[in-house]
Write a structure and sequence with these properties.
The chain is of the alpha/beta class. Helix content is about 45%, strand content about 10%. The protein binds adenosine-5'-diphosphate and magnesium ion.
């Protein structure tokens, strides 16, 4: 997993501590922030690493089949149950089970899941006996947990059971220092996969990547880089190879009120670009005055105006 931001470094340290335990972990974060990847990484750093890792994606399972998917069923227990079936909990026995989108799980199933976790036993639908299962439980949601609890879609008792440890992954736009690292990681990955010698980003392409907000987080960045490597015509990724939303930001770089909108998440390039933009505005676009005020030559200023697309 890639990440040099303090937030991700903290998460990696936390994973190192909690992975070897048997405790449940609840992972929250927007879609595409890497929740499933973190779950897999906890499993791989645990004592159960060589045993199954079973991911259960709530949205992918129809409500009527959920219980049988999770706990299995015996033949004839309902129409369509033509043979015995092993549920996902049993599949995960001795390993790790990961409930993705846990707040989307039907409430009736949340109740049964909680009961199974508390007792350490599952009963196949239609079966008389329960059986013991030994699973490490991880769960994730991209919902606002407080809201999901308040509107009743995530049962509070199940939440307390799962939330022994909580990992909150910040959106990519709040840890922009990870963007160049991830971008290069994905560039190398897709250069290899697509067998194209794309060896770098040009400066402006990287600047555009860093300043974009990524509503789809790391997944969106990865898709953008795959596309860029596909389109690249030489050894370098250029702005033209980036998706239009990243290439042509409609928003100004920063929302500038009266105060200076400083944030720890800015790169030096962003800060510089924004400062130049403000000084240019202040001098009504007069580059001679702006350059003087900035303490740089007019040609340097022009170069930067071009570079940052101001
Ligand atoms: N820190 C990271 N380093 C490398 N790849 C990442 C990282 N975070 C996310 N990804 C990649 O981004 C994509 C989305 O991650 P995923 O775990 O599916 O997110 P989520 O479950 O939060 O929607 C995956 O292809 C994953 O490999
Ligand atoms: Mg996911």
């Amino acid at each position: 997993m890639i990440g040099q931001s303090p937030a991700m470094q903290r998460i990696f340290r936390l994973i190192g501590k909690i992975a070897p335990t048997e405790s449940p972990v609840l992972i929250t974060g927007e879609s595409g922030t890497g929740k499933e990847m973190i779950a897999a990484s906890i499993h791989l750093q645990s004592r159960r690493a060589h045993l199954p890792f079973v991911a259960v994606t709530s949205s992918a399972i129809p409500e009527t089949l959920f219980e049988s998917e999770l706990f299995g069923h015996v033949r004839g227990s309902f129409t369509g149950a033509t043979s015995d079936r092993v549920g996902l909990m049993e599949h995960a026995d001795r390993g790790t089970i990961f409930f993705d989108e846990v707040a989307e799980m039907p409430l009736s199933v949340q109740v049964k899941l909680l009961r199974a976790l508390q007792s350490g036993e599952v009963r196949r639908v239609g079966a008389k006996e329960s059986m013991r299962v030994d699973v490490r439980v991880l769960a994730a949601t991209n919902r606002d947990v407080k809201k999901a609890l308040a509107d009743g879609s995530f049962r509070e008792d199940l939440y307390y059971r799962l939330n022994v440890f909580h990992i909150e992954i910040p959106p990519l736009r709040e840890r922009r220092e990870d963007i160049p690292l991830l971008a290069n990681y994905f560039r190398e990955k897709y250069a290899r996969v697509l067998e194209k010698p794309v060896v770098r980003f040009n400066e402006r392409a990287l600047m555009l990547l860093v300043r974009y907000d990524y509503p789809g987080n790391v997944r969106e960045l990865e898709n953008a880089i795959e596309r860029a490597v596909t389109l690249a015509e030489g050894p370098e990724i250029k702005p033209a190879d980036l998706p239009p939303v990243i290439r042509e930001p409609r928003q100004p770089l920063l929302h500038t009120g009266s105060g200076f909108p400083y944030s720890e998440n800015l790169t030096l390039a962003q800060l510089e670009a924004e400062h130049i933009r403000r000084v240019l505005t202040h001098n009504a676009g007069n580059t001679t005055k702006a350059a003087k005020s900035l303490g740089i030559s007019r040609s340097t200023l022009w170069r930067k105006i071009k570079e940052y697309g101001l």
